[in-house]
Amino acid sequence: MMDAVRANEILNSEQEHDVFFQGKRIWIREVNSERSTACIFPADEPEDEMTVPVSELLENHS
User: Fold this and answer.
1) Mean pLDDT across the chain, nearest whole number?
2) Nearest Cα residue to 60 out of 20, 22, 31, 28
3) How far, CA to CA in Å, does 55 sit from each of 6, 7, 8?
4) Which family does the record assign (predicted)?
5) Where are the beta strands (DSSP E) in the chain?
6) Staple 29 to which of 14, 19, 39, 52, CB 3.0 to 4.6 Å?
7) What CATH topology corresponds to 4-60?
8) Is it the case that residue 62 has pLDDT exceeding 80?
9) Which of 60, 62, 57 is nearest to 21 (CA)?
């Protein structure tokens, strides 16, 4: 489970991070810290943008 602070760290990082939403690898476009939401899109479908709670994002730490 992720929080808005970590989502912002990933968004602003120069490194690539493996982040998943409902089993799909995603990219974070924007984070709303006040609402604890993130604007995301699947790595293979950049036009399929959606806003989700950051708590539903998972980071792979391999």
Assistant:
1) 95
2) 20
3) 10, 9, 13
4) Belongs to the SspH family.
5) 18-21, 24-32, 37-42, 50-53, 57-60
6) 39
7) SH3 type barrels. (2.30.30)
8) no
9) 57
